[in-house]
Each structure stands twice: as structure tokens, then as C-alpha cells.
Amino acid sequence: MPTVLSRALFRGGCAGLALLVLAGCGGSLSSLAPTPEPKRVPEDTILVADTDTTALDPEVARLYALESELLAADDSTRRAHLLNQAMAELATLLRTRPDALERSAVRSVYGGLTAEYRRFHGYPSDPDSTLLARGQIFSVRARLFAELEDVENPLLEGAPVRPEAEVEGTEIPMTSNRLVKQSTTALEEEPSEHVNHWRRRVQVYGPMIEHILAEEGVPQELKYLAMIESGLNPDARSWAGAVGMWQFMPGTGRRYGLTVNAWVDERRDPEKATRAAARHLGDLYDEFGDWHLALAGFNCGAGCVRSALRRADAEDPSYWDAHEYLPRETQGYVPMFIAAARVMENPEAFDLAPPEPASPLAYDYVPIHGSRLSLRTVARLADTTRSAIESLNPELRRGRVPPSKERYYVRIPLGSYPRFAWNYAELPDEKKQPATTYAVRRGDTLSEIAVRFGTSTATLKRLNGISGAIIRPGDRLVVPVQEYASALSAADQRRPLRVQYDTSPPTRPLDAIETARAPSDTTSGPPDASPASSPQTAASAPTSYRVTRGDTLGEIAQRFGVSIRELQAWNDLSGTRIRPGQRLQIRD
């Protein structure tokens, strides 16, 4: 006879179920009586609903048990683990039983768990907030990958691919088997959930990604990996804490040069994260010598792949040889990547309507001296909106320019630099000083100040000769300021830049503009048009170029002032792979 847990009825005016814990009514957990240490509830436990005494299904009972443990857990690592487990089981329940939310018990635990998810990750409590879309890709991914679990003989050759849906000339093999076929079918069936969003966003970020992949010398088709990672959403955050378009965990991101602190999270910077991802994938390929294995390592880690390869019964095992020894999600990861490449490369073959037009990423990149200027102020200086500045600078976490010893570069809308420079010059000098000291305010603590400036309490004590933890209002503390390198390291650090990924070259310095006040007999005001120099025009290029060892298509394009797409069109190249001795046609 399964264990039956006693009913718990909350009589304070809250509607719905109250099982295992008293939750709801908007009160904080700290105001409730101390919760005893929860015990793991057996999987066959049946909970009894207090409204209709209907026994809950074991799957729902498990969710209530997990919610109870989650609410009682004090350790953040434990909470993250329980939250991941609960959300995964909730996604499975909703996928296998789409009508489950019609039941009040399921709606109750669904509401509780999603509220905890928002609270844990710092999302707004408003369920209509667009920020909640950050997690949408993960529920879609869970459903798509789960559909692959029931494929019989998954590695057998599937039905022939329609000729119009083939992806040819790629450096990464586009294997065809039953898993890939099922993945392609899943993407084809409900494009409004994923593919349609990808096709619009790839117009914005695609040229940037292609440019960086070419510069780093990795295959162009890797751009499809960002689609199944995040849906090309720079703000995406997984239940496990991976962040950004390429879903970096903090440690991996820092290892590849991404700053992650209280002020800046460069995992959300599309350009810097793309460069980090390209280098990470290149390192994985150097280790495994196989792009499919490199993709698997990007998903589950190099150690996970090494372990699977050791277990594979093959002399020189491939991804498909090690497939059954990889985690479930990684088993579906490469097939879904190949499916995404098929669909995105051949939209007409899948009867996809053209996406709503969108412009490629472009902006003016300007240095700001004036740490902790609010983004609202930056927007006012550029005569734009705060939301426009936030969308161009998703790495900024606190609505302000971070403290920096040197100038910090901020993206502003394309063409707005002259107006911004005019208005910035009018700011009082004290607003342009780097934040190197901090005046203590009433209620401040050392730990709060440390978090605010992305440092540690120990560092603050050392810099200021503090032996204890007492600070007083009015004390001026020396605070460490971070060094933030420009996203474009080859550029002059003190000159503004214009970045347009649909032009060649995509980056050029902007000339200084006159920001002094106009003479008194003329109308004072910012210029309406940019007097910046016209785009650089490439000199006449030779008719052909012989590829040498180490060349990449991106480097050759930059050398001759043309775009990668032009080189591909002139030389009938479908990808970016070139070989030493090959002659490339380069037109004037």
C-alpha cells in the first residue's frame, strides 16, 4: 500500500492546494514557522488533494515533493540542483500529457515551481514579462531531444534526403540517419516555435557570426550551433546557469577571456561570446580531430566525450560509435545541429515563408570616461531610448557603465555618434572621471560595496588598511577598477569606431568631429548628420590570389577589402574551406 501523506490545508484565504508545505498568499518564507528537514519521499507516494480527495498521480506527487525540498533548502547549490530536476520532470510531464494543466493540482505545482525559477534567476515576477522568453528555447529543446529517445535503430541509414534539402560543401559532415531524419521532421512540423525566430535573428547576427568564424578559421556551418543552443538569443539563460547566445558556464567563459562579474557578463555579448565559442570549438577539434566529437564536447564537456570514447568498441571511434555512451541530450545534439543546417540552408524545400526583414548588427562604438554613468543618461546623450542601449549592450548587468580605469566602450545606434559626442562634451567634468574611490553612505557594508564593484571584501580591506569590518558614512574607500579591453583589440583604443557587418571592411575608425559650441550668432545644437569619413574604398585588387598555408578566407577578404560572401560568389565556394596552392579570383 503506498504511503499516504497527511493533508495540509492553508486557512488564510489562499486558493488552491497546500501540500507538504504552506506556500502562497504572497508572504515570505521567513515569516512562516521553521520547516522541518524534509525527507525524500518514495517515488510511489500518493498525495491526497485537500479539495476533492483525489489521489495525485506519482509524477505530480514527485513534483510536490521536489517543491517541498526546494523551498526548505538553504544551500544555493542544492537549490539549483533541485530546481533543475523539478523543471526537467515538469517539462516531461507537460510533454507527455499536454492536457495536464487542466487539473488544479498540476496548475498549482506548475505555478509554484515557475515562481521559484523566476526568483532563483532574478527574473521579474510579472508573468507577461518578455524576459521570460529567455528560457523558451530550453523547453523547446527538451521536447525536441525527447522525441529522439524512441527512435528504433537510430543510427541506421534513414530515408534518402530530398535533393533540394541536401547541405553540400560543408567542412562538418552532414550525416544522414534516422536520428537526423526525426530531428528534421521535428523542426519542420512547428517552425513557429523555433525556425521562424531563428531565421529572423540570423539576419541580425548571421553576418557577425560568419565574420568571426572566418577570422578564427573554423567552419561557417557552426553558426547553426548557436540556434540550437539559444535560438540566437543573447539573453538566454538555462536552468543550469549557462548564459548567452553560446550558453557558456562562468568557468568556461572566463577560460576563454569573457569577463563575468557584478557589473559585466560578457557571455551575453554576442561578438565576444562568438569569438570565445569559435576558439573553444577549435580547441575541441584539435583534441578530438573530429567536428562531431567537438560539438559533443561543447555540449557535455571534453571529459564526458573522452569517457564515451573509452567505452566505445572501435579502433578509432567516431561520435556515432560513442553515441550510446553519451548523455541523452548529447545523443540528440549533433543530429539536431545537422537538422538545423538542413532547414536553414534550404528554407524553400521546407515551405518556409520568408522572414520579416531585419537589419544586420551595426552600431557606433564609442569610448566613455565617466564610470557608472547610467544607461538612461547614455541614451539621452545619443538621443535614443534606454531599451536601444540595453539591446546593443546586453553584457551590462546593472544599468550603468561599469567602473573602469580606462575608457569603456559602449555601443550606440548607428550614425548617432556626432550627436552623442556633442552632448557628451557638454557633461560636467566630474561626471567623466573614472570611479577610483567610493564615499561610504549610511547603511553600507564592506561586503555590499565589494559586490557593487566586482571585488572581494578581503581586497577592500587590504587596499584601505582595514583590520576589522567597521566603516563609517563619509569614509572614502579606494576601490579597484577593472580593465575592460575593447571588443576589437586591433583598433585604436581612443578612437570611436563604426561597425557594420554587412559592409567591407566591417569596422573602420570614425574621424573626430567638432564638439565645441557654435558661435553665438548661430544656432547652438548638435549636428544632424555625421561628418565621419566615408567608408574606405579598397584599392584595385589583383585578378587572382594564390592561397598559402595558414590563410583563411576571412584574412584574404580583409587583405583585399572585400567580403567573404563576394569571395565565395566569385570562386563558387559554398563554405570557407580553402587549400594551399588554390587560386582565388578577386575582382575590382
Summarize the structure.
This protein has helices at residues 58-72, 76-96, 104-121, 136-146, 178-189, 195-216, 223-230, 250-255, 270-288, 291-300, 302-311, 319-322, 328-345, 375-381, 386-392, 417-425, 446-452, 457-464, 553-559, 564-570; strands at 4-5, 46-47, 362-368, 408-413, 437-439, 476-478, 497-500, 507-509, 544-546, 583-585. Helix 1 (58-72) packs parallel to helix 3 (104-121). The strands form four sheets. It has a four-stranded antiparallel sheet with strand order 4-3-7-8. Strands 1-2 form a two-stranded parallel sheet. Strands 5-6 form a two-stranded antiparallel sheet.
Question: How would you describe this structure to a colleague?
Answer:
- Residues 496-546 are annotated as: Disordered.
- The longest helix has 22 residues, at 195-216.
- The protein is globular and about 70 Å long.
- The protein has helices at 58-72, 76-96, 104-121, 136-146, 178-189, 195-216, 223-230, 250-255, 270-288, 291-300, 302-311, 319-322, 328-345, 375-381, 386-392, 417-425, 446-452, 457-464, 553-559, 564-570; strands spanning 4-5, 46-47, 362-368, 408-413, 437-439, 476-478, 497-500, 507-509, 544-546, 583-585.
- It is of the alpha+beta class.
Question: Topology of this protein?
Answer:
Blueprint: E1 4-5, E2 46-47, H1 58-72, H2 76-96, H3 104-121, H4 136-146, H5 178-189, H6 195-216, H7 223-230, H8 250-255, H9 270-288, H10 291-300, H11 302-311, H12 319-322, H13 328-345, E3 362-368, H14 375-381, H15 386-392, E4 408-413, H16 417-425, E5 437-439, H17 446-452, H18 457-464, E6 476-478, E7 497-500, E8 507-509, E9 544-546, H19 553-559, H20 564-570, E10 583-585
Parallel strand pairs: 1-2
Antiparallel strand pairs: 3-4, 3-7, 5-6, 7-8, 9-10
GO cellular component, one term: membrane
Pfam family, one: LysM
Family: Belongs to the transglycosylase Slt family.
